[in-house]
């Protein structure tokens, strides 16, 4: 790829409709709504539209989308106390190694990554080698990433272009400078745009093009540099849906209507709080000046036949409030989120709580399928390094990916369920003791372990034979109340 192709690709990407929609989703996640561009006009005496700068024009963004995105991301990741990438057979050695790749640092990057996926419609993870030679994964800004394919039918990109425009101090003034990186399966080439906007290779980079991995060997006294390539382009994309559509799309119009209705009500309250001035016998020729005089000086001069009356106007706020409430319900319904402000009829059982999470569960389930497929690819990369380090032969079948979501529960319901479970176990134990002679000692002990949720094989293998026989004899004379 030459500099002209790079310039054309970046110019095309900046004006693409897909990236424009992604930027809009990011703006709404940052509470930068379209209401900030709202303007009010009136027609003058000659029928020409003029912007009205005298009326209140309150612009308050209501960040529902921010809540919905953060809600989905945190609900998917689950509790920070549990690992979602772990060994399938409780292999502690493998778990320790996996935690190096998918521990707390990766969890924080995954949260940033999923936020971009939901808000923008897609997101990228970037892989690199740390100082210890282990692959780490961090979130990359997808708005500045371009996938280049020579053929539209290719599943994998030939190149990845990543670009970023920053402000650089040039003398006493700042100017915008665009930096770009072109990645392939072996190396990375760095470019910088000159004053004319044309790209050229960045001469400030000590090694350009640069291999993916640069290292020195501990036993090499000459401290020569050695190079390796990853064999793949270290960018991994996850789409929010097959069309890479932001989660904003189904609810943007409703959020805009909510902003408009709420700000319109605020404007009415601000402009009409002091009422309408009815002036009789006004001797002047500027009614605006009269109004400003009343507002600032709280007084006005009139003749003997004149009068000033302030009449208040009832604002039809009930209709606006009803529309706001309807919009809020629809935002959470079509945004498939959990409305924490929902009151209901006061009967908050666990069944009711779970039903309120139904739409959020459905939305997360659809994204989780694609996320697990991506994580399998990352796990495969991590396992290849673990196997090389330990001399093992772990495969992806030895690792499970499980997201344990947490929801609120009713403590009273939980206590009643626990009580019912305990009573059920007592009934089961009594039934077993009544059938003790028919079952035999070992079968009886095994069935009791099952009822109590214990691993009978572990008990049998780790308990000395004498203690086991004593326990069995104790069970023979035991009664369960």
Instruction: Please work out how many helical segments DSSP would assign.
Output: 15
Runs with pLDDT <50, length 5+? none
The biggest sheet, with number of strands, parallel, antiparallel or mixed sense and barrel status, is:
6 strands, antiparallel
The rounded Rg comes to: 34 Å
* Structure summary, number of beta strands: 17
Q: What is the count of distinct domains?
A: 3
Strand content: 15-25%
Walk me through this protein's architecture.
The chain is 45% helix and 18% strand. The protein has 15 helices and 17 strands. With 481 residues, the protein is of the alpha+beta class. It folds into 3 domains: 253 residues, no CATH class; 36 residues; 66 residues, no CATH class. Helix 6 packs antiparallel against helix 8. The model has no long low-confidence stretch (mean pLDDT 82). The protein starts with a helix and ends in a 5-residue tail after the last helix.
Keywords:
alpha+beta, 481 residues
Layout of SSEs?
Blueprint lengths: L2 H12 L2 H13 L11 E3 L5 E3 L12 H14 L7 E3 L4 H11 L1 H17 L1 E8 L5 E6 L4 E4 L10 E12 L2 E11 L3 E7 L5 E3 L8 E2 L1 E3 L10 E3 L6 E5 L12 H21 L3 E5 L6 H11 L9 E5 L5 H18 L15 H7 L1 H33 L8 E3 L9 H24 L1 H4 L1 H11 L4 H7 L2 H12 L5
Antiparallel strand pairs: 1-2, 3-17, 4-5, 4-14, 6-7, 7-8, 8-9, 9-10, 9-11, 12-13, 15-16
Nutshell version of this structure?
With 481 residues, this protein is of the alpha+beta class.
